[in-house]
Specification:
four-stranded antiparallel beta sheet; Rossmann fold; repeat; calcium-dependent phospholipid binding
């Protein structure tokens, strides 16, 4: 009963490893690990196909067959918010009424059906009202407005043997016609060729167009990336090969790989390609004071570096002029970027703070508070952990398992992405491959974090400029030409 995956969930040059688990009440199935190449599926299909893949063998026994249905996705970007209710549904429970829920199936081009949504269970009633749910139109009908959508009604049972009540069919176009009025469907029991009084009513159908990250970029939104390097002594003396900051003439160190990998991608979204690059945890000349937000280029009035090459040059120069010290404080620079982000909350600019660090965070409580405050601002934070240390604090800041909080306040949204650099190093020393792997993982959550900010504030993209059309060369009037004499 899992929902289908789309081609965007896998890579054409990689294997998608899927784990299938037992689900009771729908006829099957027990599978072990099955490794399926999406490329092989595509080779066997043109527009739509069904492929059977034999799973692995466990304890000398075959574990079943995985049936893969592949179909080219449409470019439909609509989503729809639907809400249904039931009326006088069949009573299935001996000591009660029913616990009904709906299962939606999309019809495929080969005539088969694939589950695309399942509602929650409403307990002990024959007149349920299910919660509204939002679903992409691609998942519902692959953008084909007239394609059949089958809806089955079940009575939930604790043991998983759910009782079938009946079904009805509709289409996306039919549901859209019901936006101004209720639409009532008769629920028919398949085994009984007779009508029934059981009904499911479409209460609301609200259509929306899904906006993408690129819609905002095309609309003029500015993306500003602030790069931050940890300069604490724990990284080691930059003149020694064991240092994480070691400036080798032959290859990039871990800090440099991370800076270049992420900067080269982000600079394509930055119109002026000027990056404020900061460092923290070092003693600055001439008096040796410790700073937790100093410009890598040494210019406090203008910390901007031209392109990622300018950032790399400033990084190497700073290693020669500052003295690595400590401790590892994140909160000052988070607050620094947050001050700028708080001044542009209209969606015209979004900030990305990249922190590259190798040590234990020494101001964890203050950092949590800074992140909770920043979660309501147009900014995201990327943390790349380099070196062999344990990154327990950074994992906690990521907030994937539990939303980060400070003094009883929870972050409005998830804005932190943590990536341990060592997990993406190519063991053969291929820095280009390492940078590609790191950049993919580091930037994976940025579009969703960005869109979550825009959606919660109702900010739409700006108007897109008209497509560029080159002007034809001007026609030259014969009287404006002259003959040039040559010797």
């Amino acid at each position: 009963m899992s929902e289908p995956i789309s081609a965007s969930d896998v890579y054409l040059h990689r294997l998608a490893v899927l784990r299938f688990q037992r689900r009771r009440g729908f006829g099957h199935v027990v599978f072990v690990w099955s490794c399926v190449s999406f490329t092989n599926v595509c080779k066997r299909c043109q527009y739509s196909t069904t492929v059977k893949e034999q799973t692995s063998i466990e304890n000398g026994k075959k574990c079943g067959t995985v049936i893969i249905r592949a179909e080219e996705l449409s470019n439909c970007r609509e989503s729809v918010m639907l809400q249904f209710c039931g009326n006088k549904l069949d009573k299935k429970d001996f000591f009660g009424k029913s616990d009904p829920f709906l299962v939606f199936y999309r019809s495929n081009e080969d005539g088969s059906y694939t589950i695309c949504h399942k509602t929650e269970v409403v307990k002990n009633t024959l007149d349920p009202v299910w919660q509204a749910f939002k679903i992409p139109v691609r998942a519902l009908c692959n953008g084909d407005y007239d394609r059949s959508i089958k809806v089955e009604v079940y009575d939930w049972d604790r043991d998983g043997g759910h009782d079938f009540i009946g079904e009805f069919s509709t289409s996306y176009r039919e549901m859209c016609r019901s936006q101004s009025q209720f639409h009532v469907y008769e629920v028919l029991p398949v085994l009984l060729p007779c009508s029934s009084d059981w009904q499911v009513t479409l209460l609301s159908c609200l259509v929306d167009t899904e906006l993408s990250f690129l819609d905002y970029i095309r609309g003029g939104m500015l993306l500003t990336c602030v790069l931050l390097c940890c300069c604490v002594w724990a990284a080691g003396n930059p003149s020694q090969p064991t240092s994480l900051h070691y400036m080798s003439p032959y290859q990039l160190n871990d800090y440099a790989v991370a800076l270049r990998a992420i900067g080269e991608i982000i600079q394509d979204y930055d119109s002026d390609k000027l990056f404020p690059a900061l460092g923290f945890g070092a003693k600055l000349p001439p008096d040796g004071r410790v700073s937790h937000e100093f410009p890598l280029n040494g210019n406090p009035q203008n910390p901007y570096c031209s392109g990622i090459d300018g950032v790399m040059e400033a990084y190497y120069q700073s290693l020669k002029s500052v003295r690595l010290y400590g401790p590892t404080h994140f909160s000052p620079v988070i607050n620094h970027v947050a001050r700028y982000a708080s001044a542009v909350t209209d969606g015209s600019q979004y900030f990305i703070l990249l922190i590259i660090s190798d040590g234990v965070i020494t101001d964890m409580a203050q950092t949590k508070e800074s992140i909770v405050n920043a979660a309501s601002l147009p900014m995201s934070i990327i943390i790349v952990g380099v070196g062999p240390a344990e990154f327990d604090e950074m994992i906690e800041l990521d907030g994937d398992e539990e939303r980060i909080s400070s003094q009883g306040r929870y972050a409005e949204r998830d804005i932190v992405q943590f990536v341990p650099f060592r997990d993406y190093i190519d063991r053969r020393g291929n820095h280009i491959l390492s940078m590609a792997r790191l950049a993919k993982e580091v930037l994976a959550e940025i579009p969703d974090q960005f869109l979550s900010y825009m959606r919660t504030r109702g900010i739409k993209p700006g108007p897109q400029p008209p497509p560029y059309t080159p002007c034809p060369p001007p026609a030259i009037h014969p009287l404006h030409t002259r003959r040039v004499s040559r010797i």
